[in-house]
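Notebook, student rotation project (T.W.).
Task set for the rotation: take a protein with a known small-molecule partner, predict the structure of the complex, and write up what can be learned from the model alone. Partner molecule chosen: adenosine-5'-triphosphate. Sequence and SMILES entered below by T.W., checked by me.
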Amino acid sequence: MYFTAVFLFSLVGELTVKIEQALADLRNQAPLVQCITNYVAMNIAANVVLAAGASPAMVHAEAEVANFVPISGALTINIGTLSPDWVAAMQLAADTAVSAGVPWVLDPVAHFATPYRGEVVRDLITRRPTIIRGNASEIMALIGAETAGKGADSGDSVADAESAAISLAQSQGCVVAVTGEVDFVTDGDRSARVTGGSEIMPMITAMGCSLTALMGAFAAVAPPLEAAVAALAHFAEAGLTAAQRADGPGSFQVAFLDALPNVMPSDLDKPGRVQWL
Ligand SMILES: Nc1ncnc2c1ncn2[C@@H]1O[C@H](COP(=O)(O)OP(=O)(O)OP(=O)(O)O)[C@@H](O)[C@H]1O
Ligand SMILES: Cc1ncsc1CCO
Ligand SMILES: [Mg+2]
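Predicted structure of the complex:
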């Protein structure tokens, strides 16, 4: 019993240090992150990655992704406003990332809404993402569960998606992050909940897409589970600060960008922020 407690305590301590280190490394290394994201998210996601301390590049042409992925620290693929040309580029980018050992993050926006989206996401998942990040409805639908999702917006609670996240992580051998009021992240073995943020966040489009891009930045400098937790905690902390300053969704967006560079490594594991399960 004593030894189990000591072992668990040291494991949690070690993970905590890795999260703090992840943000320090992100700021020191400012990794290049190739983002294939949607038209809605492109500007805000690039600004979020820059404000956090990394270097985004929104590069999606099939003619250049095979050259760009290997010089990037990470790749992110978001299917928000997909079209056939983009899908070919996403597939090539994902395959190039796996061959080059570059971690890649998948954001399956509204994949349950049309057969085309569903097919594209099923194909991308066979190309071995390092992390899958989605809202509760998106993650539940990835294991075939019924969801109340409406397009890009979630209609389900994160708690209802936790078991889906664990089975998806186990079946795909990747990290799965589910976002909402309290985020849940798992590698199928170790899991954590991350608390913070603001109820204003789902009132602003592309916050989740921007988080996916930031998760790519962390995955360039840290192992996948710690990278996902660090990105969620960074958002949670900046969201709390922004909520104190904002009058509504418009000013929140500005306050959120202002808050991102001021988040310090030790903020990521403030008491109550990350709960390892
Ligand atoms: N009710 C809430 N309270 C606190 N934080 C929230 C809440 N809802 C969402 N968030 C935070 O907002 C961020 C975006 O998550 P969300 O689940 O809204 O993504 P999403 O649905 O994929 O968004 P989008 O597709 O519009 O980009 C996450 O950091 C999440 O923790
Ligand atoms: C609103 C919207 N539509 C397609 S992608 C996107 C951004 C949020 O996912
Ligand atoms: Mg989304």
